[in-house]
Amino acid sequence: MQVEEGDRTKEAYGVAVDVGTSTVVAHLLHLPSGRTLDAEAKYNSQRVFGAEVTRRILAAEREGTEKLQALVVDDINDLVSLMV
């Protein structure tokens, strides 16, 4: 754990992520004010398993969820790195 001196509540930031069927969108938020400071989007990499959610569900049943999860985690990490 890292502890810093002083009141840092005005410096709190967060990321809101929307994982959609075709895109993943991330918003960098200044939490005290609720303002969006930046936003990035990219195509959902899970689409390699199919454009429709039902095809992705079938792929997860056949192959497990690890590959699908890794793809969306990579997408989120890519978006966050673009905003920082």
Brief rundown of the structure:
The protein is of the alpha+beta class. The chain has helices spanning 53-63, 66-83; strands at residues 13-19, 23-30, 35-43. It is elongated and about 50 Å long.
Overview of this protein structure:
The protein has 84 residues and is α+β, with helices and mostly antiparallel strands. It has one domain: Nucleotidyltransferase, domain 5 (2-Layer Sandwich). Helix content is 35%, strand content 29%. It is built from 2 helices and 3 strands. The chain has helices at residues 53-63, 66-83, and strands at 13-19, 23-30, 35-43. A 3-stranded antiparallel sheet has the order 1-2-3, with helices on one face. The protein is elongated, with a radius of gyration of 16 Å.
Summarize this structure as a short list of keywords or feature phrases.
elongated, 3-stranded antiparallel beta sheet, 84 residues, Nucleotidyltransferase, domain 5, 29% strand, alpha+beta, 2 helices
Architecture per CATH nomenclature, i.e. the level-2 architecture: 2-Layer Sandwich
Uncertain regions spanning at least 5 consecutive residues = none
Strand content: 25-35%
Major beta sheet, strand line-up? 1-2-3
Strand/helix succession: EEEHH
Please state the average pLDDT score.
95
For the record, the count of structural domains works out to 1
Q: Supply the CATH class.
A: Alpha Beta
What is the distance, rounded to the nearest whole angstrom, between the alpha carbons of the first and last residues? 22 Å
Number of strand elements: 3
Largest sheet: 3 strands, antiparallel
Task: Please report the number of helical segments.
Answer: 2
- Helical fraction: 25-40%
Structural class computed from helices and strand pairing: alpha+beta
Q: Tell me the name of the CATH homologous superfamily.
A: Domain of unknown function (DUF4445)
**Cα Rg:** 16 Å
In the CATH scheme, what's the topology name? Answer: Nucleotidyltransferase, domain 5
The geometry reads as elongated
